[in-house]
Amino acid sequence: MKIKAALFFLLALTACASRPLPPPYPAYVVVDELPDAFVASLPGVRAKQLSLDPRTQRVSYRLAVPPDWSFTTGGSPIHSVEIYVLAGQVDIGEFSLAPGGYFYIPPGMPGAQMTSSNGGSRTSASGSRTCGSTPAAGRGPG
Between these two residues, 116 and 121, which has the higher pLDDT value? Predict the structure, then answer.
C-alpha cells in the first residue's frame, strides 16, 4: 500500500512539474521594440522583421518609407509579394492604397512600380517562394 501511495505521489508531482513547450516562434512581439532590419532590396526604408520561415524563406516586414520613395517590385517566377498599408498612402502601379489597402503580386507576374510621395507610410509586406496562380489584385478602402 505504501508503494502505491508513493508511486501516486511521484506521478502527481511530475504531472504538476511539466509545462507546455514554448512555441518555436515569438507568439507576441512589440514591433516598435524590434531592431531595424537591413533589407538590401529596399534602400532608404526602415524595416522591422516580423517573421522568417527558414524552410520556405517566407518573410514579413513592417516598413516605414521615406518621402518621395520609389521602388519596383520586380517579377519572379518563384516569389510572391503582399502589401498591406497601415498608414499613409502607397501607389502601386495604377492602384492607390490608403490605410487598410491590400495588394498581392503572385509568383510569375510582372513587377509593379511602388511610390509614396508623402512619406511616413507604414506598410506590412511579406514575400514567399511558394508558387501560386491567383491573378494580381489591388483593393483599397472605398
Answer: 116
Q: How far apart are CA 101 and CA 131, in angstroms?
A: 23
Which triple of cell numbers denotes residue 75? 517579377
Distance CA 22, CA 54 (A): 18
* C-alpha cell recorded at residue 111: 513587377
Give residue limits of the domains in the chain. 34-139
Grid coordinates standing for 50?
516580423
Helices (H), the chain: 2-17
Sign for the CA dihedral angle at 92, 95, 98, 99 comes to negative
Residue showing cell 524590434:
34
118 φψ region: left (φ > 0), alpha (ψ -120 to 50), beta (else): alpha
Q: What is the pTM of this model?
A: 0.65
**Domain covering 34-139, topology:** Jelly Rolls (2.60.120)
CB-based contact 113:93 (threshold 8 Å): yes
